[in-house]
Amino acid sequence: MARKANNSLFLEEWLRTVSGSTVSGDLLKQNSAPSARSIIQAWSEIRESLQNQNFDTRYLQALRALVSSESTIHVADPQAKLLISILALRDASLPSDSYTLVLRLLYVWIRKAFRPSQALVGSAVQAVRGVVDDRRNLQPTLVAQSVLVSGAFACVPSLSGDLKLLCLELLCRLLEEEYSLVGSQEELVPVVLAGIGYALSSSLDVHYVRLLDLLFGIWLKDEGPRGSVTHGLMVLHLIEWVMSGYMRSNYINKMSLFANEVLETSKEKYTVFAVFMAAAGVLRASTAGFSNGAQSFEISKLRNSAEKRIEFVAQLLVSNGIVTLPTTQREGPLLKCFAIALARCGSVSSSAPLLLCLTSALLTQVFPLGQIYESFCKAFGKEPIGPRLIWVREHLSNVLFKESGAITGAFCNQYISASEENKYIVENMIWDFCQNLYLQHRQIALLLRGIEDTLLGDIEKIAESSFLMVVVFALAVTKQWLKPIVSKERKMETSVKILVSFSCVEYFRHIRLPEYMETIREVISCVQENDTPCVSFVESIPSYNSLTNPRDLFTQRIKYEWSRDDVQTSRILFYLRVIPTCIGRLSASAFRGVVASTMFLYIGHPNRKVARASHTLLVAFLSSAKDSEEDERNQLKEHLVFYYMQRSLEVYPEITPFEGLASGVATLVRHLPAGSPAIFYSVHSLVEKASTFSTNSLQGRKSDPGNQILELLLRLVSLVDIQVLPYLMKSLAQLIIKLPKERQNMVLGELYGQVAESDDVIRKPSLVSWLQSLNYLCSNNRTEVSASGSTIDTSNQLAARL
């Protein structure tokens, strides 16, 4: 962007653009550009007005028409002479706005002129001095445009030293005497800064220190402009523009003078934020690649001085306690400037203060979620929500938030080069941020959902961006610590903290990020290597009581329902998905004490994705093995199955997904000991559930709930062990005999096909005999029903035959 800066025709417009200023570009301009005919007509009107000494509304409209086309028009020397003649008038009565418009057109002239006339520039400077000396004409816009045009005159290479000196003196006098006028309007700040930038780019060294004093001291004056992130960015890119010019023109003396006055000397009359941003501007300009001989050495010295100044400011902030204490209103703007500056200035040598300041800036200024949550929770139901909605909207649109990705990149670069101690400090700051984000957003979501959805959506946009920051940082952490040379203890601790942190921000994960997937793979691989990190991660899951009956103060304001707590549900879903990957490392006692109750709670969650994950977790545990506790694990499996069947079937089909139930049942019959009472209970429960559906339901589509249960029972015929098979055949026969004829035929056909394809020599003879008996009973039952017109209870017959 340094090269782009040097090619900018109007410096003040470029400063507005790169700073993300939301203030109108130029109050002098109209919305639409006039045609070529109207431009010619405008010059004619101005010439006629001067000749007749009649400066009416047509004259003013003509000036505005030309200014609105400043990017396309070319002001020739004769036209500049016309404008100077108007400025030189002393007795005529001109509209007050016309002076500013005329100065703007002179600025367009000097910026586009290839080699302007020395005499004409001299006349213009004298005319400008005459206008500003007349105190009756002074207005903020006039002073700002006078500063701008004076600076633009001073940096024209072809002008004489005397003319440049005259321009510099005028500019300095205006700023020293009329700074209060300049500070009165926000939109004038880039205009004044551009004027100073032009003046600093002049080939003269005279008044150079005076100009620096004005640039860095004006922010401290009582009636001067108020410092902000936008102003800080303007200073950064202004110095980038100036320094790029020095490097290109080989102004070594000016580079040295700037370093001595601004970077290497602390002056009380210089604003800290402006000096800091200037140092960042120097670093940005130095990356453009201007280097040859002595100039290269001077640039290296300049860059070194800039880095030291940045580190000095960072140390100042750290000494004020920003790492451990909430930031004050004074430190907040400086931290914002710190973040955006390091994102834009390129690589900076690593240091502990820089890392700590960037961390604090990210967590309190780029993502000020803690302040937002605290403010809303205190004001909820007591104060209007409107002002806070505006506050959040403004943060979403400001340049700091929009560059959160670049700031995160600068932060990670600093982290990579930090010492182990500082890495540990910063990691814990980020993990704590995740924990607080979960706790606080959970509250705000419950309070605002359905009441202030627009506001909640805007807050979540900030939180979603912070999630991306956490993911990128976590990947950087894994690359530092999950390496063979790192101790097992450090790797395990890091992996668990990342997993817990990811669980806290899971609610904000809406897209598939490669960085996220890579980090998850790395940390889960580490957790799978040892029992300790697995247990540690599992024990971090919120307790059953805290899930269903939280004791937070906010729950007293609303009727709390655990199934509607979306933030909490997302976190638990993360655990439900991760725990199966390391289930073999988890002891039976840990599963019973920590996981089981939560798993069964969420089996009944109305979100089927969540319920399905709970079924998957049980499947993983039932199919797992741990040699050191085989008996205890098998006992727990049997114990869990009883409640699993009860919990699953009581909410089937409304909540329980059939795929999850089928997977659970198939797994338990495969992995529980042969003849287990739990398997008998499962078969009994399924048959009982199937019996609750009407016969019409059982003869409908295969996707109907009753038919799905029946299909599952048919599938179990080839899965259950030989001890349970007789009970299953008897129970299934009792169910089939009650089906309508068409459905009976379909079921029998499926069973015949299943038995025919079976190569199980042990159960096949029993199944063949059972099918023959079942077919006979079904045929006999249909015959009797047809003859008598009523259903005959064949249960006793069935029991006798089977």
From TrEMBL:
PANTHER family: OBSCURIN-LIKE PROTEIN (PTHR36337:SF1). This is Obscurin-like protein. It comes from Arabidopsis suecica.
